[in-house]
């Protein structure tokens, strides 16, 4: 049921193991759904971006996506006044990261129950793109009609890749994507701007780009700046409507999202998650969510992870142990897993493509 273990090397991506963290503290991020209009309103007047090159095992060798610069997100927060800290906070030797700006400046990538590293791109998300690319057939609408969930999406690189493919289609694709991250600020600052960039770099934005001679080239291999105008927002909205792409965004805990999906009966054909099994105490909630998201028909769940996360105890062995533990069996949440791609195995995943009913 679960497929996992992707490991590759790539430059410019966060490879540091999560630092040892203090005991789990109560959740502070409330569960919420962020509407498309809300995320459009949260966009800054200008987004700067740089290319992210992702190695592939196919003949294409690599794919390049445009990704919002982290310093640009920091500048947005400062310009919006989030850098105005209280005097008492400034006097602290190590400021408490209670805001997105604090997350960016914090010495650790993880603050349990407050921030889970979503503002940065972690290498296993690139591995996930490499695997998903192996499922595609350039001559068919490979992910059309699918309901897709990315758990702990952070910068959303796997979903951004899928959307870049869907935005390149000439006809309706009828795809539904759900992206979840613990922090709403991550979805607003990084995830959604990256989706806007994926749309802009695709054929779906051709008509909009033709209306403005000052638009930057739709070339993700070149760093640039994208001005966010009302007409751009309208064109983006029109494109997702025309293509039949539905986008949903959720912040908060995995337990809350699992409860929500159960209450509305939402099921998915594909569930994706990367670098989310680093803390053992969070594994039952993750497994519950992935199980809740599954369809009754053949579907695919991909968990991209490192063998071991030093300092925090999680990793593949702990994930497998939890997946097959007595507690999970008693709760009806147990399952099996198979390694479909690893450091020593990167073949084209024909069997999983067939399982999803993707055309070849």
TrEMBL record:
Could you tell me the keywords of this UniProt record?
Cytoplasm, Methyltransferase, Nucleus, S-adenosyl-L-methionine, Transferase
Q: What class of enzyme is it?
A: transferase
Q: Which domain of life is it from?
A: Eukaryota
Q: Can the keyword Nucleus be found in this entry's annotation?
A: yes
Supply the EC number(s). Answer: 2.1.1.85
Location of region: Disordered: 341-360
Q: What is its main location?
A: cytoplasm
Compositional bias (Basic and acidic residues) spans? 345-360
| Compartments, record wording | Cytoplasm; Nucleus
Q: Which GO terms describe its molecular function?
A: protein-L-histidine N-tele-methyltransferase activity
The name under which this protein is listed is protein-histidine N-methyltransferase
């Amino acid at each position: 049921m679960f497929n996992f273990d992707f490991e590759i090397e790539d430059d410019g991506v966060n490879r540091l193991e999560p630092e040892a963290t203090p005991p789990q503290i109560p959740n502070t991020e409330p569960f919420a759904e962020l509407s498309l209009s809300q995320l459009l309103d949260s966009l800054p007047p200008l987004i700067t971006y740089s290319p992210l090159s992702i190695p592939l095992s196919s003949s294409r060798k690599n794919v390049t996506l445009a990704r919002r610069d982290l310093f640009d997100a920091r500048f947005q927060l400062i310009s919006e006044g989030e850098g105005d800290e209280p005097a008492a906070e400034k006097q602290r030797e190590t400021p408490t990261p209670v805001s997105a700006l604090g997350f960016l400046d914090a010495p650790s990538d993880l603050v349990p129950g407050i921030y889970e590293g979503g503002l940065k791109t972690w290498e296993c998300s690139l591995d996930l793109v490499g695997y998903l690319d192996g499922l595609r057939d350039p001559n068919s609408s490979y992910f059309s009609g699918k309901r897709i969930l990315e758990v702990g999406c952070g910068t959303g690189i796997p979903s951004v890749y899928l959307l870049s493919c869907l935005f390149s289609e000439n006809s309706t694709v009828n795809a539904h994507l759900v992206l979840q991250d613990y922090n709403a600020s991550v979805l607003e600052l990084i995830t959604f701007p990256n989706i806007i960039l994926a749309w802009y770099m695709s054929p779906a934005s051709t008509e909009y780009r033709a209306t403005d001679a000052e638009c930057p080239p739709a070339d993700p291999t070149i760093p640039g700046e994208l001005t966010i105008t009302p007409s751009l927002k309208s064109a983006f909205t029109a494109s997702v409507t025309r293509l039949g792409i539905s986008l949903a965004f959720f912040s908060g805990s995995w337990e809350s999202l699992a409860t929500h999906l159960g209450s509305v009966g939402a099921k998915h054909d594909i569930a994706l998650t990367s670098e989310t099994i680093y803390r053992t105490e969070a594994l039952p909630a993750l497994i519950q969510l992935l199980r809740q998201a599954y369809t009754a028909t053949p579907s695919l769940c991909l968990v991209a992870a490192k063998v071991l996360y030093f300092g925090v105890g999680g990793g593949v062995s702990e994930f497998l142990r939890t997946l097959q533990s007595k507690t999970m069996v008693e709760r009806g949440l147990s399952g099996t897993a198979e390694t479909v791609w690893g450091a020593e195995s990167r073949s084209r995943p024909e069997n999983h493509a067939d399982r999803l009913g993707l055309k070849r």
